[in-house]
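Handout, page 2. Input:
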Amino acid sequence: MVLDADEPTLRNRSQHDQLEVTGRQRRLDHIAEFATAREWMISEADLIIDTSRLAGHDVVSRIAGEIPAEHAITTAG
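Output:
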C-alpha cells in the first residue's frame, strides 16, 4: 500500500505541521527522494490511496474499506 500525495501537498503539509515540528526540515529535505522513489513504489503497490485532497479520517476510512471482512478487527460493545 502506498499513501500518495503530490509534491505541493507534501511540501504544504510539512511546512504547516504543528504536531511534529522537529521533523519538519527533515521531511522537506527528503521530498525529492520521495519523488524519485514514487514511481517504483506505485508500480509495485497493491493499493494506492491519493491523500492529496483527503482529510485524515477519510484516509483511514479508505484503508479500513480495503481490509477483507475475514481480517477486520471487531470490538465487543
